[in-house]
Amino acid sequence: MLVNLFRLLSRLPLSVLHLTGAALGWIVYITTPSYRRRLNEHLQRAGYGKLRNSAVAEAGKSVMELPFVWLGSAERVLPSAHIGNLELALAAMAEGRGMICLTPHLGCFEILARAVAEHMPPVTVLYRPPRKDALKPLLEAARARPTVRLAPANLSGVRMLLKALKAGQAVGLLPDQVPRQGEGAWAEFYGKPAYTMTLPAKLHQMSGAPILLAYAERLKHGRGFELRFVRFEENLAGTPEQQARSINAAMEKLIALCPSQYFWSYNRYKTPPGVAAPAGASAS
């Protein structure tokens, strides 16, 4: 039933989906106290409290655009995704060591792998199955394509990422996704400790592959998305904690380019099961 609903919605113009999504964002914000509290707290912590209205609307758009991005035809979806500086990624790939692409929950991050894979196939992306089994067929069918490979978020998936890099291919990760026990380190994110994945640093050290940041800015009035690559310029040497802080610093700089479109309601500061919280920290 959910798949059929998504297929129906995917036929609508992106402008209609975004307009509906903006309204949905406000409905959820008004009717869900925990969501409202977290979004406001995270915006204030990052210094973007004045962007609340646009952040609420953009969060709703990020949900309603999924049917279009996941199930829309290539003829409709791909022309909506313009890559502003593809030459930066092509230059990184030309080094022959693959490319590690870090994409936070910023803008339409779901469209990036599909769009980039058209220019440098295949792209292997780290994938964490949804908690609800009913969503699994929809997500896997939507994300897995001939040019996009899914690597599970476990040891087997890490091997897939390394194999792809050794073959000179691109891989993608969500660096601000809270990892599981043993897969991250505590590091400040907007001044508060967040359990942060260290996998990007490990992949870089093991493969020598260059790292690029990427995001897809959602354009107004459903005009599509502007995809951009940014060089990763932080130092990934040192302890896991230092590496995690470098990754978070890079994320903060990237978010500053398009702050209203970050997924501010994401529970970035939660403590994963089995992980000891840092002294004096509390989940938000």
Ordered list of secondary-structure elements with their pairings:
Blueprint: H1 2-9, H2 14-31, H3 33-46, H4 52-64, H5 66-71, H6 74-77, E1 81-83, H7 86-93, E2 99-102, H8 110-116, E3 123-127, H9 136-143, E4 148-152, H10 155-166, E5 170-173, E6 184-189, E7 192-197, H11 199-207, E8 211-218, E9 225-231, H12 240-255
Parallel strand pairs: 1-9, 2-5, 2-8, 3-4, 3-5
Antiparallel strand pairs: 6-7, 8-9
Helix pairs in contact: 2-4
Explain the overall architecture.
This protein has helices spanning 2-9, 14-31, 33-46, 52-64, 66-71, 74-77, 86-93, 110-116, 136-143, 155-166, 199-207, 240-255; strands at residues 81-83, 99-102, 123-127, 148-152, 170-173, 184-189, 192-197, 211-218, 225-231. With 284 residues, the chain is of the alpha/beta class. It has a domain at 76-258. Strands 1-9-8-2-5-3-4 form a seven-stranded mixed β-sheet, sandwiched between helices. The protein has a two-stranded antiparallel ribbon with strand order 6-7.
Features:
284 residues; alpha/beta; 7-stranded mixed β-sheet; 12 helices; 43% helix; 17% strand
Task: Please summarize what this structure is.
The protein has 284 residues and is of the alpha/beta class. It contains twelve helices and nine strands. The longest helix is centred in the N-terminal third of the chain and has 18 residues, at 14-31.
